[in-house]
Design goal:
3 domains; about 65% helix; two-stranded antiparallel sheet; Ribonucleotide Reductase Protein R1, domain 1; Fumarase C, Chain B, domain 1; two-stranded parallel sheet
Length: about 450
Amino acid sequence: MAKLMWSGRFQKPLDSSVNDYNSSLPFDSRMYAEDIQGSIAHCHMLNKQGLLSDADALSIEKGLQGIRTDIENKVLTFDSGAEDIHMFIEEELTKRVGDAGKRLHTARSRNDQVALDQRLYAINQAKVIRSLILDLHGTLIERAKENLETYMPGYTHLQRAQPITFAHHLTSYIAMLERDIGRIDDAVRRTCVSPLGSGSVAGTTYPLDRESVAMELGLNGVTRNSMDGVADRDFAIELVSALSILMMHLSRFSEDIILWASQEFGFVELDDAYSTGSSIMPQKKNPDVAELTRGKTGRVFGDLVALLVVMKGLPMTYNKDMQEVQESLYDALDTLQAALPPFTGMVRTMKLHKDRMLEAAKGGFSNATDLADYLVKKGLPFRDAHEVSGKLVRHCIERSQALDDLDLDTLTSFSALFDRDVYDAIRIRSCVENRKVTGGPSPSEVEKELRQMEKFR
């Protein structure tokens, strides 16, 4: 086992089982680029403040860049005996540049170092996820534009309610994605501050320029309290909370797709490239991408709960419990990055059975509200019109008919206000096209909404 850099106060070596239990390198090694980026900025600041000579600063920067290159090219592998990514890089740097490497940690603790690394990593990964969401966002816009007049039933309580279009249904999910991006952007904005210079708890007596480090790293400022700087993991909780809501939206969409792809609905057929089969039943075509997304939603929820439980009872400031934050954060980020590309591909390639969707819209009396509205426009109070329409629905159910099938004599036997123009009023196309209220399903309104959505970035 390599000599631990904090071992001066100790007389006995660390037990090997404790070293394995204590080490975070197996999972925090993914932050090597951010750790090196932060170290180079810290090196520049120490040099500018006269705390590091020009020669040492140059040697350190070249050494760190070489380590990054060697890790990326797989020339340098991570030492399983190292305690964490910070110690691994510092030990490797010292091997390469000698005593200069030992000077890099001046005015810095691993407490503020890991807080910085996690923030930088979260910001970088959130940008990747944001881009993947925009890919799905764009795919939904294109599919919606293709289906402005693809009629289908809208549902409440999973019962056919009122006719809508497939485009209108998709724009509901586009609106959700835009809120998801807004939440991620908000989380990133609050993450974009540098804790470096907070030290372990009480800052430092060295004359640091914390703001210059933040500026070099592309951050918006610095944390204002040294204790909060190292104790705060709100940024991780907030980001995983935003990702949890995103996954909830994807899960709801998955549930729709799973239903639509069933033989009972028959609204869509998933592309072969985004489906799987059965080892025993040759006829099966399973919506595994949607089902996995629905299942992995619980996993991301679990990551959020784990973060909250880890942090809820910790005294100020840093506690080793906080090492557990990393794996939950990484898992949530990894899950979204794995889920979004196949989900987007599934939506992009699925085939619509438009005739089946229209047939379903015509069934289930989804135009019953429009029948009532017709009577209201003729002067009947809505509650009375609602009752007439309900009686006509019961009349049709008893005779296995649709409202459109009823002749005018039958209709007028329930209300003298009916006339021949009722048939146009309760046609599926009319029911949808007449709903021109802002946010409604009429093709003209959805098209207007899509033009706004196309501007979202």
